[in-house]
C-alpha cells in the first residue's frame, strides 16, 4: 500500500476482486497525420466511461479505509493496462497523463524497453565531477543523508551545533531533518518538533522573465543578501551553517523559478562562508527540463558539492564530491541502500534517452507546450497568468485556489490528468516520451475547459 501517498493507487489484489480485464475502447478515427508514438502500444485518445472516482475506485477506497485511510487517493490505476502517456483506471477510464507520478514516470507506462531491461545488467549515471554516490530508497532519505555528509565534512567528530540553510516555500521531504528544511506544506510540519535552522526568501519572480528582467534581478539580489545575513546571524549564535540546500525549481512550493545568476551567486556565497552547496534535483533531475541535471544549465564555475536525486532516476540517492566521502563505514547506511532492480531500469532509461533523442524531444515539445500555455493565458486573462517552465517542467497560475482546483478536477473528468502546486498553480510533468500531438490534445481540452468556466 506504499503507493497510497500518490494521488492514485494500484493494488493488484484489490483490483482482481472488483475489476475484470476489459479492452479499453479507442476512438473510431485515428488522429490525422499523427506521428508514430514512442510507445506503439499507447492509446490514441483519452476515453472516459465514468466521472472520477468511478464506482470501482469508490469501492476500493472503502476497502482501503479499513486498513489505512484513503484521503490522498483520487482514483485507482490499473498499471498493467496503462501504456505510454496514458494511464487507465480501474473503471476503464483512459487519461492522457501530464503529471506522470509527480514527474517520476520517465518513459511513461510499460515502455517495452523497460520490460526487456528487467532481465539485463545495470549501470549508473552521474553529474560531471561528482564521482561519489550513495543510493537510497527515496528523495527524502537522500536529502536527509546528504545533510549528514555535509555535517561530517564540515567539522571533526562530535555533536556540534550546526545547521542547514533552506528557502521559503521549499520542499525537501518528510523525515525529521528534511522537515526542518521544508516550508511549503503545513501537513509535513504541524505537530512535529523542529530544529532552529535558518530560512531565507526564495526569489518571487514576475513572468514573463524577459519582460521583468530588472525587477527580477533586484529581487534575486535581495534574497542573496538575506542568505549572507542568515549565515552570519547563525554563526554569531554558535550555529554555523554547514550547508545550503535548494531546488533548481521549487516544485511543491508553486513552480517558482530563479535565474542562473541567482544560483551562481548562491554558490559563491557558500564558498566564501565554508558552507556546502546542496542541490535537490529530486524532481528536476533525470531529463525533465531538457538537461539530465538542471543545474547544468546554470554555467556554474564548478559542480555543486552534493546533488540529490530520485523520481525520474528510478531510485533515490545523492552524488557528492570526494571531500564529503565518509571516512568510516556505516556512517551513511540503510538496509537495502536503494533498490538494485531500479538501477536496471535506470540503465535502460538512459539507453532509450540516447536512442530516441528524448532530450531533444523535451526541448522541442516543451517549447510547443509553453507556447500553447502562453496563448491560453492571453485568451483567458481573467483565469490564467504567469505561464512558466523549461522543458517538461511547466506551470500556469489560475486566478485563485478554488478556480485552480476546479480546472484540475474538470480536466480529469475530460480525460486529462494534471497536478497542482502552491496556492493556485496548475503544474505539468509529462513523461520524456510526450510528443506534440499529446500536447495538442491537452491544449485543446484545456481551452474548452477554460471556455466553459
UniProtKB/TrEMBL annotation:
<dbReference type="InterPro" id="IPR015424">
    <property type="entry name" value="PyrdxlP-dep_Trfase"/>
</dbReference>
<dbReference type="GO" id="GO:0005739">
    <property type="term" value="C:mitochondrion"/>
</dbReference>
<dbReference type="GO" id="GO:0030170">
    <property type="term" value="F:pyridoxal phosphate binding"/>
</dbReference>
<keyword id="KW-0808">Transferase</keyword>
<keyword id="KW-0032">Aminotransferase</keyword>
<dbReference type="InterPro" id="IPR005814">
    <property type="entry name" value="Aminotrans_3"/>
</dbReference>
<dbReference type="InterPro" id="IPR049704">
    <property type="entry name" value="Aminotrans_3_PPA_site"/>
</dbReference>
<comment type="similarity">
    <text>Belongs to the class-III pyridoxal-phosphate-dependent aminotransferase family.</text>
</comment>
<dbReference type="InterPro" id="IPR015422">
    <property type="entry name" value="PyrdxlP-dep_Trfase_small"/>
</dbReference>
<dbReference type="InterPro" id="IPR015421">
    <property type="entry name" value="PyrdxlP-dep_Trfase_major"/>
</dbReference>
<protein>
    <submittedName>
        <fullName>Uncharacterized protein</fullName>
    </submittedName>
</protein>
<keyword id="KW-0663">Pyridoxal phosphate</keyword>
<dbReference type="GO" id="GO:0009450">
    <property type="term" value="P:gamma-aminobutyric acid catabolic process"/>
</dbReference>
<dbReference type="GO" id="GO:0034386">
    <property type="term" value="F:4-aminobutyrate:2-oxoglutarate transaminase activity"/>
</dbReference>
<dbReference type="Pfam" id="PF00202">
    <property type="entry name" value="Aminotran_3"/>
</dbReference>
